Amino acid sequence: MKVLLINPPGWQKGSTNLGLCYLASSLIAKGHKALILDVNATNASPEYIAEKAREYAPDIIGFSLKTSTANAAFLLSRAIKNRYPNAVHVAGGAHITLAYGESLIQNPDIEYCFLGEAERSFIEFVEKKEKGLPVEDIPGIAFRKGAEVVTTKREYIEELDAIPFPSMDAIEGFSFKDFRYPMITSRGCPYPCTYCCVGVVSSKKWRARSPENILDELKRAKEKYGITAFEILDDNFTLRVERAKEFCRLLIASNLNLSWYCHNGIRADKLDMELARLMKEAGCTSVALGVESGDPAIFDSIKKGEPLEAIVNAVKCIKAAGMKAVGYFIIGLPGDSLDGIKKTIEFQKSLGLDHYTYGVLNPYPYTEVYDIVKREGRMLMDIKESSHFSTDLTIPFEMPGFSRKDMEKAFYLAKFQQLYQAIDFYEKKHGKKPSRILYFDFSPGSRFTENLSKLIDNYELDVFCFQTRSDDYFKNKTKWKLTNLHVYVDTPYISGRIKSFLGFFNAFRKRDYSMVFFNIGTPQMLLPPFLAVVRPRVFYLEAEDGAKLMTMKDPEIVALKRKKLRELFFMLPKLSISALAYPFMRLSVIGFGAFLHFKRDGKRVEFTREGPKLKDMKKDKE
Amino acid sequence: MKVLHLCDHYRPIGGAEKLLFDTLDALERNGVENVVATHDYLENKATGDRKEYIVHDLDLHPFSWNYLDYFIRSARAGKALRKVIEAERPDCIHIHNLQNPFSISEAIKAAPTVRAIHDPRLYCFNNWRILRKTKEICPYPLGYKCVTEGCLWPDLLAFTTDGRCAIPRYASYLMHRRVEKLIVESEAMRACVLQNGYSETQIAFLPNFTKTFAFDEVMRRIDELDRKEENSILFVGRASFEKGVDYLLEAATHIKIPFKLYLVTGGPETAAIHGKIERLGLKGKVEVPGVQSYAKTRDYYAMADVVVVPSVWIESFCLVGIEAMANAKPVVAFRTGGIPDWLEDGKTGYLAECRNVKELAEKIELVLKDKEAAKVMGIMGYRRVQENYTMEVYLPRLLRIYESAMEARKKL
To answer: CB neighbours (10 Å) of residue B171?
Structure first.
């Protein structure tokens, strides 16, 4: 049979839907045809996908749903049904496992839902459909029967080694360039964390693949796709520490020379120094931890089943082993507040992480926090409309002690913590708050910065965002204001750019800022000219390890200035030859213009309906 | 015969480059040995299908104020090209899109030279023959009007690229008087070339060609892919001012029947196009699939009810038009440049007055309303391409041009 599998848009860009690749390989192993359309990567329109589906003419179309991709999947299903009504539409994935009833009732196009792992149930379904047999007795499915939704008993796959390796080839147009091979070495998680849905989706029973089987997959991936890096996406990679160590030892012995990451987060209490060292030796470069909250009361209330000290120890182990430590934090956990987030930020600073990410809680259906939010708080949107890994900030709910506005504030407080830190430094040093701040943002597309000035109280804040963009925005430059600046400079000519920059710098100079803050993306080469023109009294330079306070009299800055002057001095001989030639060249160009001006002859071409005609311009004049 | 082809871009980015690759293939199939020398843009990669040289700075322009650097680098590029020519000893040199006078003078010195003119850059300081002040099509030859009409003079003061390029461009313009043959693609182009002081004997008239397909195959694809319930309008081309997407979007607001507009496009104005679609309230009616391969573009041709060519500059030929006709589709276009050469008004499509968006909308509606007539127009277009714009017609004429260039050089 021909099966089309679709990964709908709305998830992290650059990620691979491994679940669909597993399904495709299982289908191919049984002699069926499978094609995966990764709409999340291509962002193709529903009409285009419908057309593709019609071209491919599958018997079954399967959608993989996460909560934030569910609506897009239903739209795709509708569009395909309109253009190509012959296929059976089925759905699976985390969202379907959590909310199959609602999904089936609201979307008549979807006929069957697969709950949890579908490598067996889906194959059985396809084979029964091929033979025309009834499918209602297949374990782990849900379907409509009259007005009701019926489910069958779910079974989990115990022997994970028996599942064929995932097939990335089945994804249409898949790019293996800079490809980080995704791996799942175990499934399930026994911990009852209140915000997490893994226990429901992949079961509370933890099942693991043998280290040998994992290594076989890596060898095959290296041969077949030429991978240089892989990423472990397990829900709980190190639950059995000995198994993780065994895997690392085998990987070291295999000499595969692959670098790898654990960016899905591991448990802090399941990491010891020996494992950290082995991981490093096996090629692991970075490990992420789900810290969630730095407020001990909240941390304990989310039922992670580990103390906050475990996080501190784990970060120490990771850093001591020479890997990068990454932390993930959640804003809006039950009991959380603006003050709680401030505590979390303090805790995060004390950890000395190499990278950290804050996200607003998405209360997924049928998790404990979902019930708490429903009971005590208020949903602000349908959870399916909330975004995950988006550049826009969406806050899907609010709680009595943590309003939407506060959550937004908390998010910006965490995201721009170095700016706040700089303001504190200033206050401590000068005994007063800075009256007027300029924030420099050179990172393209940072939409969050747009809202920054609205969120900082008591200060006058100008935000200078610089981007080059070719659209009408540039034409409306009369609308630019000095506060909350968003500057899109679009001119191909360097002279034009310098002119507009100097214009802005001079404007900044007049505004007399008490503090200037350069965000981390500021190009180093722009710093000296800026400092030379604006001459701010105090400025802060954002770095990985915090904002660095600087003044024009700092030895570092004085040295930088001297270095630049020295460079300029030694560059002068080179420049001078060109510079000397330049006025003559310009004069010759102007002379050339004059020459053309006085050389009057030629014919004018006139395009008529009968064709082009040439006319003497001298006669025209007469 | 051995022919050395000089070009700036050596990858399929537009009509001129597609024609270059089609020409190379056609020549090779007929026993001509091709050698290609191209500028060292990062994107220019050797294909391995023929002998290829990537020459550093082959098509350099004085983009920065540092003229000295420009002269030194251009001279080096000329020298490198001379070495290539000495090593290859071609019978004829075919210059495609190249402006650097240093490279061109080396080519002219070494062998009989043929120059294909795909755009007015040879005799216009701002590339597109559109007057800077009024945005009208420029009717004047290169000369004092470039100064009085403000195309050149502000540049001399504003220190811009066009201003800096003026002298090298003028040098290249004068140098081309010594080129044996100038290939023009349309009557409009011929008039422009004559107007700029090149001699009648230099001019060789050679319209473009496109790959054609069996009639049954074309009709079968249309049957399969045509969206019967939808009035689909198609635009294929670069997203830039001169290709007139702006005008097409404005025309779309005047169309009174339901329609869907597909823009197979990409380029400097892409972001502006998206902005304009939103501003004009055309969201949902316009889809932008982006740049597509020719194979994929053929699907769009098959699907479309009408192909629109809203160019607002002196189109030298416009390959998209004959591609659409080769796929049996009617074309609606502005009457400009070489378009009237291949588009017979009322037979293979409709012509609207240049920049008259209301007329363009009316003509598009005319096609969409009567699909049977549109089908007949498509078939007439298909026949016209089969008779005039195929490789079988193009190639012998190109070979004849090479031969006459060689004869002209011998006489000298």
So the answer is: 16
Query: What is the domain count for chain A?
Result: 4
ipTM above 0.90 for this complex: no
Q: A611, B271: Cβ pair inside 8 Å?
A: no
Helix, strand, or coil (residue A605): strand
Residue A470 reports pLDDT greater than 50: no
Domain boundary among A370, A388, A415: A415
Contact status, residue A461 vs residue A449, Cβ threshold 8 Å? no
| pLDDT score of A276 more than 90 | yes
Q: Answer for the pair A592, B166: CB distance below 8 angstroms, yes or no.
A: yes
The tens digit of pLDDT for each residue in A338-372 reads 889 999 999 998 998 888 888 899 888 778 898 89
Encoded tokens for A607: 């395009």
**Facing residue for A614 by CB, picked from B137, B158, B194:** B194
Q: How far apart are CA B345 and CA A523, in angstroms?
A: 56
Angle at which helix B319-326 crosses helix B371-388, to 10 degrees, equals 110
Closest Cβ–Cβ partner in A469, A606, A612 for B271: A469
Q: Quick one: average pLDDT of A294-312? A: 89
Show the domains of chain B with their CATH numbers: 2-209+391-411 (3.40.50.2000), 215-388 (3.40.50.2000)
Pick from B156, B260, B291, B356 the residue to mutate for testing the A interface (most A CBs within 10 Å). Answer: B156
Q: Which of A382, A415, A448 is the last residue of a domain?
A: A415
Residues in B touching A612 (Cβ below 8 Å): 187-188, 190-192
Q: Are residues A522 and A611 in the same domain?
A: no
Structure tokens at A357: 């990410």
Looking at per-residue confidence, does A322 or A559 come out higher? A322
Burial zone of A162 (CB within 10 Å; 0-12 exposed, 13-18 middle, 19+ buried): exposed
How many helices (H) and strands (E) are present in chain B, helices listed first? 16, 13
CB within 8 Å of A475: residues ≥ 6 apart: none
The pLDDT value given to residue A3: 94
Residue A452 binned pLDDT confidence (cut-offs 50, 70, 90): low
Q: Which pLDDT does position B311 carry in this prediction?
A: 94
Kindly report the length of chain A. Answer: 622
Our CA-based measurement puts residue B329 at a distance from the nearest CA of chain A, in whole angstroms, of 21
* Contact present, A282 and A319 (Cβ < 8 Å): no
Neighbours of A194 (CB within 10 A): 17
Tally of CB atoms within 10 A around A358: 20
Query: What's chain B's length in residues?
Result: 412
Q: How far is CA A428 from the centre of its chain?
A: 36
Range of the domain at A282: 176-415
| Interface residue of B125, B147, B155, B161 to substitute, partner A, most A CBs within 10 Å | B147
| Cβ within 8 Å of residue A164, ≥6 positions away | A22, A25, A26, A28, A29
Residue in the block written with tokens 């009639």: B215
Q: Rounded to a whole number, what is the distance in Å from the CA of A482 to chain B's nearest CA? A: 24
Residue A464's pLDDT is 67
Summary mean pLDDT of chain A: 82
* Rounded Cα–Cα distance for residues A515 and A549 (Å): 10
Strand order in the sheet with B349-352: B286-287, B260-266, B232-238, B306-309, B331-334, B349-352
Give a yes or no: residue A560 inside a domain.
Answer: no
CB B404: neighbour CB atoms within 10 A? 16
Nearest to A493 among B161, B192, B287 (CB): B161
Residue spans of chain B under pLDDT 70: 65, 153-161
